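Office hours follow-up: a student asked to see two folded examples consecutively, so here they are.
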Amino acid sequence: MSVIAIKHDQIAELFLTHKEAIVDFLLRKVKCPDAAQDLSQETYLRLLGKDSLTHTDNLPGYLFRTAERLSIDFIRHHQRSGAKTQELDDELTCPLMQPEDFAILSQQCERLLQAIASLPRQCRHILLLRKIDELTYAQIAGKLGISEKTVQRQLVKAMLHCHHMLIGTQH
């Protein structure tokens, strides 16, 4: 085996060519999409840190071996941390929010913002003063020059409107 200097653009090309396969490989090992992405980036950074490489006859193999070693270190670290010493298996899911969950949450936030925007002005103002500014009914009533009972009624109206808009029913 010879030792050759390898340029950063060669490493970048090697990584880009095999990035998807590396992420899939790491995902099978660590069972967490975010960790697999992070480890693939760490693999790339490790190779960038090398001034020269042996194994020039099989650079993709070297790339995968580096990724595998990083995944082993990752798994060992999480097993040693003692937070949860579960075995990695097909049933173990990533504790981070998954893209589909994030998309659902984003849609719900958008519907909530639309619901708030569609409220009558005073009703919207009361809702925001209570939920965002955390003012009491008495403080809101004093600020707007209305009764506490009106504040309560408008707040209930606003919350019901938002609830109906979020679950998609007409009221």
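And the second, which I mentioned at the end of office hours:
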Amino acid sequence: MTIKIGDTLPDGQLAEFIETETEGCSLGPNTFNVSDLVKGKKIALFALPGAFTPTCSAQHVPGYVQHAAEFKAKGVDEIWCVSVNDAFVMGAWARDQKAVGVVRFLADGNAAFVKALGLDADFSKFGMGTRSQRFSALIDNGVVKQLNVEEGGSFKVSNAETLLAQLA
């Protein structure tokens, strides 16, 4: 079953590569419970098939980085990029995209989270195995308020501009 507007996000775990050690977060990959991360927060979440892939790197991530201040001005606490990659790859990609401290790059290494959302996709024909569908969502205290899922290989509704317009 695919998650829909009005549903609560399923709990799961996502990993993040932490660049600077702080109390409670060590340097390197740290695993977080989704339910803890969303509690009391408004999250602009976007997910995509893979780090360093053409559309993801050239269009999807840059849009959210570019519009980060506008999301914050409209009450969004955090912007998340979720992908079925490991935390090391996601950390390297965040650095490459100059997004550290702007967008949280959260790894769903085994696709467990996107499977729980019903938004996984089979990319085996591209040699990539199970990945995430391309989508964006507005999450408010764990509840899905907006959901934009792309059809096939398109990039029309999960971009930053669409989700930002839905915050009006």
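Two things to take away from it. The two ends are 29 Å apart (CA to CA). The helical segments are 34-38, 54-66, 68-73, 87-96, 112-117, 160-166.
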